[in-house]
Amino acid sequence: MKIAMIGTGYVGLVSGVCFSDFGHDVICVDKDPAKIEMLEAGKVPIYEPGLDALMAKNVAAGRLSFSGDLAAAVDGADAVFIAVGTPTRRGDGHADLTYVMAAAEEIAHSLTGYTVIVTKSTVPLGTNRQVKHTVSKANPKAEFDVASNPEFLREGAAIDDFMHPDRVVVGVQNDRAAEVMTDVYRPLYLRDLPIMTTDLESAEMIKYAANTFLATKITFINEIAALCERTGADVKMVSKGMGLDGRIGNKFLHAGPGYGGSCFPKDTQALARIGQDHSMPMQITEAVIKVNEEMKRRMIDKIIDLCGGSVNGKIIAMLGVTFKPNTDDMRDAPALTIVPALVGGGAKVRVVDPQGQREGEELLPGVNWMDDAYKAVQNADAVVILTEWNEFRALNLKRVANRMATPVMADLRNIYTQKDAKRAGFVAYTSIGREDYGIKR
């Protein structure tokens, strides 16, 4: 099959590369000439483990190419995927569909035969019908159908998620479109992986409902963690005990500084707004959004308490600023709330992150970027673990403590234990949902 992928951001590029590995002929399209030039040179503009090698393999096989010419890419395509950004619209929380509709109109003028136009971007309910209307209006003679095919890719594990999905959701209006989508995903059908065919609106809703539920699990365990700190319970034991219940499961029950990234913040806000627009307030979702922001601010207070009530003039080593490990994504990362507050409080912040500097330099002004955790903690007054990169999971804590001016740690991912910290020589330690020591409040 010939597939055109409109947009080479995270979702578009990963999906395009993986579709080409299925054996399809894929052209990835982007309006940014610099990005196309980079991709044609074999360079990947995002960090995703294994993507560079898979991309090179399929380019070499002649199945994958990159172009700025949308019309040529769409000409003769069996399926055209829209994978452009849908950021939160300023002022009202809605998903901004400007790029989706612009792509739909441009696709309309380029259609030369029957094509299924597939929305891969996360879009509010009714968007695919809007796409259909936009295409029909721009080109009344176009022969096409629309489909909704939301993505469920975890950054840092996207290739495995695409190749071995929990499920693939396909929303269509007729059998003809369903047959095309079956051919697109034939390698997964042949392996009997769960592929769910439904109507357009249900497919759109599944994406929002799934992401919001996961964000709710994260926020729930973070609230439980806050209560554990007041009552003497250990949130790691609590989450383990909860997770052993098959009705609950253990995923997304790890306490931390709050969720971030490209999906959960904007999708929860969009779902809340959809509910308001339909006079059906999503009260749980609205509470999740509110509590998540409060959790980030609680982390600031934890660090200030750790530093004796003030960070003014203190050197703080910040280990990790991306919203999760194995990605360079800084979108809505807790660091974007926590680090500026520390800098604003007079702290001198040193940051170490294996992939975060490229985006972080612009988003986190006033910090000192370093490439080694042990250098960052030299003469520091506190060390904060904010992202659980593997590099930070196996630190020589005694070496860290010995290099610090004041050996105190805020372990905001619960990588270590109070026992580990005491044995290494830390005089104060705080984590999430567990007992602290050495901290005066």
Describe it for me?
Helix 13 packs parallel to helix 14. The chain has 19 helices and 14 strands. The protein has a 6-stranded parallel β-sheet with strand order 3-2-1-4-5-6, sandwiched between helices. The protein folds into 2 domains: 197 residues, Rossmann fold, CATH 3.40.50; 242 residues, 3-Layer(aba) Sandwich (Rossmann fold), CATH 3.40.50.720. The relative contact order is 0.08. The protein is elongated, with a radius of gyration of 24 Å.
How would you state the average pLDDT, rounded?
95
Distance between the termini: 64 Å
How many domains? The number is: 2
What is the 3D shape?
elongated
Poorly predicted ranges (pLDDT <50, ≥5 residues)? none
The CATH topology assignment of the largest domain is: Rossmann fold
CATH architectural group of the largest domain: 3-Layer(aba) Sandwich
The CATH class of the largest domain is identified as Alpha Beta
Count of DSSP H/I helices: 19
Name the strands of the widest sheet in spatial order. Answer: 3-2-1-4-5-6
Output the radius of gyration. 24 Å
What is the strand tally?
Answer: 14
Give the biggest sheet.
6 strands, parallel
CATH superfamily of the largest domain: NAD(P)-binding Rossmann-like Domain
Structural class: alpha/beta
Task: Describe the structure in brief.
The chain is an alpha/beta fold and 441 residues long. The protein is 45% helix and 14% strand. It contains 19 helices and 14 strands.
